[in-house]
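User:
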Amino acid sequence: MFKSVKTFRSKYLFQRLILCIFVKQKYDDLLSEKKLIFRDFLVICLKNSVEKRFNKQLSDPFLLSATLSHPYFKTAWLNNSDKKDTALSFFKHSCLEMFEQQNLLECESSDSDDTNNFFDWSKNKSKLTLPLEQEISNFFTKSPTKNLDSLIETPTIRKVFVKFNTPLPSSAAVERVFSVGSAVLTKKRGRMTDENFEKTLMLKCNKHLI
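Assistant: Predicted structure:
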């Protein structure tokens, strides 16, 4: 399950969460083998560091929804029943929000001209209009597959997957923030506190809204 993450040609956001779980499991396997005599303390320190650094991400609703919406992983990587229930709750909430948003857009577009549907994905649309609960149930009962075309049968989950697994295509936005930050934190402002720096940076980046 975890080794198959390397076989994906495309990069998705859910891989961050899966790799964190994979590293933790590897450390647990090393400790359970009891072959380490003088190096077990090092493994424990490394494991604690990973848990401390990525603990929030392991329970982040965004990353959980991104992982559960993939037709290959779903909930197979969750061993703890409580964590599984929590992840499913986040995922169903994301699907419900997407479903309501989709219905709202359809109601608004129904009053508009048919000529506005030029960019409609008619070829990729599912012919079945299933209730949301049945769609989620069918998604989890199907066998795991790496083929993303299987999401066509579950249009709401497909939109959830696209929403939560679409990273920024470039680092231009981050580099822009670094550029503005270097202009704010000059030599004359070397004693500026972190709080003032963040406030000044926020005002400078959003001055078009003032």
